[in-house]
Write a structure and sequence with these properties.
alpha+beta; Protein Transport Mog1p, Chain A; eight-stranded antiparallel beta sheet; four-stranded antiparallel beta sheet; 12 strands
């Protein structure tokens, strides 16, 4: 069932994106080997920190620069039961492409990006609710940033999303991570780390 959420969410991301960005991922060597995180980069465009136990995935969102995650599944003769799953993607939306798509008369900022994301998520999920209707815009790692959390359900599954949005001179970036609410206590700190670790290279 949760795999269906991934598929549906990939469609949601496609609604937001007009870019056709493909990148090869490169893992950087950790400076601190005791750390539980490692840095992954996308073609000298950007980087994020992810837990060391994550592995690269190719089917979360074909437009994403970075796609990693973890899942622990049980398969029997009648169904697939995911005991635990957590995923992260990083996508870029170049301002030039957005301007061509929206027209010169339309302005766009991080708050509008957040609102569009939540509205599209509401189309894919039941009872989607954002933690912050108007989240604060801060500066992080030298760029404007916004953080939000979204709770919802898909069928019988309760799901939780964290999003970090970042604005640089040439683009908007989206770091998105999600898991089942049953495992939120286990993963929330990791999710905060991922959604706040973005750096443009």
């Amino acid at each position: 069932m949760f795999n269906q959420v991934i598929v549906v969410f990939s469609l949601v991301l496609l609604l937001l994106s007009s870019c056709d960005s493909q990148s090869q991922l490169v893992d950087n060597t950790e400076i601190n080997i005791e750390s539980k995180y490692r840095t992954v980069t996308a073609d000298e465009i950007c980087s994020i920190e992810i837990p060391k136990y994550f592995w690269e995935m190719s089917d979360l969102n074909s437009e994403a620069l970075i796609q990693y995650g973890y899942n622990d599944t049980i398969v029997d003769s009648t169904s697939i039961i995911e005991q635990d799953a957590i995923y992260v993607t990083t996508s870029v939306f170049y301002k030039m492409d957005l301007q061509k798509m929206l027209g010169d008369s339309v302005s766009f900022d991080l708050l509008e990006f957040n609102n569009d994301f939540i509205e599209n998520l509401k189309l894919a999920l039941d009872d989607a609710r954002a933690e912050y209707e108007t989240p604060n815009i801060n500066e992080q790692n030298g760029v404007k940033s916004l953080h939000n959390e979204i709770y919802g359900s898909y069928g019988n599954d309760l799901v939780y999303y964290q999003i970090g949005l970042f604005e640089t001179e040439i683009a908007y970036y989206q770091v998105l991570t999600w898991c089942l609410q049953d495992h939120l206590a286990k993963h929330k700190d990791e999710m905060v780390k991922m959604t706040t670790s973005f750096k443009e290279i």
